[in-house]
Amino acid sequence: MKLSVVIPVYNERNTLREMVERVLTVPFELEVLCVDDGSDDGSREILDDLGKQHRQVQVFLQPRNLGKGAALRRGIQAATGDFVIIQDADLEYDPIDYQTLLDPLIQGRADVVYGSRFLGSAPHRVLYFWHSVGNRWLTLLSNCLTNINLTDMETCYKAFRRDVIQSIPIEENRFGFEPEITVKVAKRRLRIYEVGISYWGRTYEEGKKINWKDGLRAVWCLLKYSCKESAAQSAAKPALAPPTEEPASNVPPSRSSRTA
Asked: pTM for this one?
């Protein structure tokens, strides 16, 4: 079994090397697809060095900062493993959870697995109250629109069968990837599992990038793709043929029915 780990990178020089080296320690056959999204803080040089040191590491350079979704789209398209995991370049998510994420996929029970920060007993750093409220509210809205029961729609840790994720067109270029892919996965009626993971959230001083504007964009994406996917499914259904009139009979009337 081969695992593709897709890592979008934008100005993460403080954590990038340690993150990649943690990924390389997991006990799977690996390809690590690092997509630099126009970094200007030295991250590209670190990636170049990691690519030379480790044969599993492949580096892709975006021409400019296009956004997380665009970076993921490029990395996913290049993946060749049996399964694909999304991994941020910071240290908020720990690759030690890969086995837990992959188990339902390996066992053939799932097509997609979400790693929830709100399930299980793994360690979680205590941080922003309103972030957790926003995450839960977005997840609730997502569940209402898709009729599934996730606890953490906005989680980074998502694992897919490669053929599944490569068959889904990714349109969002920035942080709208999470709601977009959730709606598209749900509307395709794929088998979704959710497992508890650890979470070591960071502060804005430590480099956290997402903000309230991204939350508003997530709401827009949930509504947009829910309507778009529903319309596409309706259009794909075969139209019912209109009722046809009973064809007139060519058989002449019987002798007894003729007028004298």
From this structure: 0.84
